[in-house]
Design brief:
Layout lengths: L4 E2 L6 E2 L13 H5 L4 H17 L3 E5 L2 E5 L3 E7 L4 E7 L8 E6 L4 E7 L2 H19 L15 E4 L4 E2 L5 E2 L1
């Protein structure tokens, strides 16, 4: 990780000097407590795959997990029957599992709900791409998906601005 600053209290490393953060990374067991075994198994498989990509920090709070290399490249919400996965790419990607796509000037976020190992397998190339983008953003391809104004696109084709205003 390219380091500009290390928090003197928790020793976490950040690119941005004096990065605002909550000290500590939380506990894996806390986010998985009282979850169905199949969700715990799905999370474990995702965790194993992500760790194989390189140095990754898992920051957990309540039911949320941030996946971070130099930057956050994906985040999870642990639901009772699924993992809600958001991957942050440099471009807009197409996949039937993505039910929401939002963009800003820095990246395009793709959101999917994972219920099965097969769905996780489908997301692995996107997780790998997001990890690479978080490590080497200057090398990432830029496609027409990110717009200066940003916005949210749902799979039904409806487009909304970040504040929820519908766009034509």
């Amino acid at each position: 990780m390219a380091t500009a600053w290390v928090c003197p209290k928790c020793k976490r490393r950040f690119i941005q000097r004096n990065q605002r953060h909550a000290c500590g990374t939380g506990e894996r067991a806390a986010v998985l407590r009282n979850r169905p075994p199949e969700i715990v198994e799905l999370y474990a498989a995702l965790e194993t795959f992500v760790k194989s990509l390189g140095s990754v920090e898992f920051v957990t709070r309540e039911r949320y997990v941030l996946l971070r290399s130099d930057r956050i490249f994906a985040d999870l919400v642990i639901m009772s029957g699924a993992l809600r996965l958001a991957v942050h790419l440099s471009r807009e990607a197409k996949n039937g599992l993505f039910f929401k796509i939002a963009s800003d000037r820095k990246h395009v976020t793709h959101v999917a709900k994972l219920h099965t190992m097969d769905e996780l397998e489908t997301m692995k190339p996107f997780l790998r791409e997001a990890y690479q983008f978080s490590r080497f953003p200057a090398e990432a391809p830029r496609a027409g998906g990110a717009t200066a104004a940003g916005g949210v696109r749902r799979t039904d084709g409806e487009r909304r601005a970040p504040g929820g205003v519908q766009r034509p």
